[in-house]
What we know:
Oligomer: single chain
Strand order of the largest sheet: 2-1-3-4
Helix content: 10-25%
Amino acid sequence: xxxxxxxxxxxxxxxxxxxxxxxxxxxxxxxxxxxxxxxxxxxxxxxxxxxxxxxxxxxxxxxxxxxxxx
Length: 70
């Protein structure tokens, strides 16, 4: 799901979209996303690539925020 106000939300991702790349690296699973973001800090900018619900490729550069507290 997309957290309101998150970098993904600001970039325009929707719940049905599939993230395909982060910071120039291909991602195919949530674990891949976590691994790429583990080396990043709040305030860092990363390029995010995704396929939207219609199959169109999209991309945006986003500024990372702090992770929500679990």
